Automatic annotation (TrEMBL):
Family: Belongs to the 3-oxoacid CoA-transferase subunit B family.
Superkingdom of the organism of origin: Bacteria
Signal sequence bounds: none
SUPFAM superfamilies: NagB/RpiA/CoA transferase-like (SSF100950)
Database matches in Pfam families: CoA_trans (PF01144)
Keywords annotated in UniProt: Transferase
Protein name as it appears in the record: CoA-transferase
Species whose genome carries this gene: Amycolatopsis bartoniae
Any one GO MF annotation of this record: CoA-transferase activity
Length: 238
């Protein structure tokens, strides 16, 4: 039996987002996705490219390349050579994401980050999402503001060719973003399918849900002793 915490299972789920990606630029936003990307790089995806967020491609111990942000925008983003993991204040049944505002956009109840790079990310390369607190306030029927572009809007705008929504990892499980509806892929240990359904406003396909895999002994060692010895992960997911 593993003694992995919920946060460590979430890190593993985020690492699995990058399985099979090969030599692309990983852009994980937030602690848990960043730990997942670094763990994937150290284990099953050694060709994954990681950035320091400024101008360098890095490993955990060295700088291995130079890639300023303008080069990312010119040569990486428009050519699909990137997998970004963004946050989401709202996600709806169509795969639209909101990080801009809650309520009417002309007079919002709460101002958030703004559009940021969400529209360009979702129509140019693979995009996944990380939600540390899965609730009906996040998983809604319709987002208040569309930042990340969902399936119907991508089709209507004629940008389906490079539109690649992938997964949502939350503190409860992993969701598969699909044009025909969102599917529950797995629930974390200690979480039931009913827990996820009760915390999601729209209907989920739960027919193929399994349990999220646990970290191996090697992965736990890397996570606890190398990547996050201060256990900051457990402050994000309790």
């Amino acid at each position: 039996m593993s003694d992995a915490t919920r946060a460590e299972v979430a890190v593993i789920a985020c690492a699995e987002l990058f399985r099979g990606d090969g030599e692309i630029l990983a852009s994980p936003m937030g602690l848990i996705p960043s730990l997942g990307a670094r763990l994937a790089r150290l284990t099953f995806e050694p060709d994954l490219l990681l950035t320091d967020g400024e101008a360098c491609l890095v490993t955990d111990s060295a700088v291995e390349g130079w890639q300023p942000f303008r080069k990312v925008l010119d040569t990486v983003v428009p050519h699909g050579k990137r997998h970004v993991v963004m946050g989401a204040n709202q996600i709806d049944r169509h795969g639209n994401q909101n990080i801009s505002a809650i309520g009417d956009h002309t007079r919002p109840k709460k101002q958030l980050l703004g559009m940021r790079g969400a529209p360009g990310n979702t129509v140019n390369h693979r995009t996944s999402y990380w939600v540390p607190r899965h609730s009906r306030r996040v998983f809604v029927d319709e987002v208040d503001v569309v930042c990340g572009v969902g399936f119907e809007r991508a089709r209507d705008a004629g940008v389906e060719r490079f539109h690649d929504l992938h997964r949502v990892v939350t503190n409860l499980g992993v969701l598969d973003l699909r044009p025909d509806g969102i599917r529950l892929l797995s629930v974390h240990p200690g979480v039931s399918v009913d827990d996820v359904v009760e915390n999601t406003t729209f209907e989920l396909d739960v027919t193929q849900a399994v349990e999220t895999r646990l970290p191996s002994a090697e992965e736990l060692h890397l996570l606890r002793d190398v990547l996050d010895p201060k256990s900051l992960r457990d402050k994000e997911v309790r």
